[in-house]
Write a structure and sequence with these properties.
Length: about 300
């Protein structure tokens, strides 16, 4: 499972903000217990808890918790809270500006690759609903790479869908999807223009897994044209193949993201006793994945 991590911006609360903080039920008297016996320092535990709280939107809507509120919530000293905030700041998660209140930065977003894969809903819950622009919806001959991923003869007609996802700040991704002819024939343009393609497939077949690979690249001509980026801007590139419960590939594709708006991480289940049903993480090992390294870099 891959997780694209959230980036936050936090400044310091000043005395001028005390009246605002006192008027809101921000912390609500809540407390969060830390493991005092853990070898993990308290400030590091606070860091992890704050990351989780912000990812879930568990914070006041007007301004983030003050240092004093965080001290109360975690029952730690102000020095511990400041060390946690400094850690997040130094890692690029937070930005602390003198004389400013504390706010969550929505410039980057956390896309969790969970079993539901309902990415539009995740954005909507964060207060940043996405709009879809359908750029292509055509039955066209597939490339050799797409044919290999969908296990069909090259040149077979497949449904090719291209969409741009945007929020109020601009484009967040450009998506290429190639749908197996057994399922693409029944999809309608109006559906693809407004709904999750995975949801549409789930209505037709039982899906079992999705193989994903994420890498860094430069925007180049593609990013400049599709996402209005400088050609030398960094991109995140995600390639994927989705399979049914009978291991039939039903959709493959590729998405490009402006790196300034996304960040990639991953989660590994360390408690699993076997690899069955557990996401695996591979580094530079094409033999362990069905995703070809030379997957089409542009519309075909």
């Amino acid at each position: 499972m891959y997780v694209l991590a959230n980036k936050m911006t936090i400044g310091m609360n000043t005395s001028d903000d005390l009246d605002v903080l006192q008027k809101r039920p921000a912390s609500g008297g809540r407390t969060i217990s830390l493991d005092r016996m853990s070898p993990l320092p308290l400030y590091a535990q606070v860091v992890h808890r704050l990351q989780d709280m912000i990812a879930r939107g568990d914070y006041p809507s007007d301004a983030f918790y003050s240092e004093s509120e965080l001290c109360s919530i975690f029952d730690v000293s102000r020095a511990t809270v400041r060390q946690a905030l400094q850690r997040l700041s130094s890692e690029g998660f937070l930005s602390r500006q003198r004389g400013s209140r504390t706010f969550v930065n929505r410039e980057r977003f956390d896309e969790a690759f969970d079993p539901s894969m309902n990415l539009p809903e995740q954005w909507a819950r964060s207060g940043r609903p996405l709009s879809l622009t359908l750029a292509r919806f055509d039955m066209l001959p597939c490339s050799d790479e797409v044919a290999a991923m969908l296990r069909i003869p090259k040149g077979t007609l497949v449904l090719q869908v291209e969409r741009m996802r945007s929020d109020a700040s601009g484009p967040v991704s450009y998506d290429y999807r190639y749908i197996h002819p057994d399922f693409g024939d029944s999809m309608q343009r109006s559906e693809a223009a407004s709904q999750s393609l995975l949801d549409l497939l789930k209505r037709r077949v039982r899906l079992r897994r999705g193989d994903n690979r994420i890498e860094a690249s430069l925007a180049g001509e593609e990013g400049e044209q599709m996402l209005q980026l400088d050609p030398y801007s960094p991109l995140l590139v995600r390639e994927m193949v989705y399979y049914t419960d009978t291991d039939m590939p039903v959709m493959c594709g590729r998405s490009i993201y402006p790196a300034k708006r996304m960040r990639c991480g991953f989660s590994v289940d360390l408690g699993a006793k076997d690899a069955g049903g557990v996401s695996q993480f591979h580094i530079n090992d094409d033999a362990t994945t069905d995703l070809p390294s030379d997957m089409a870099r542009a519309p075909t």
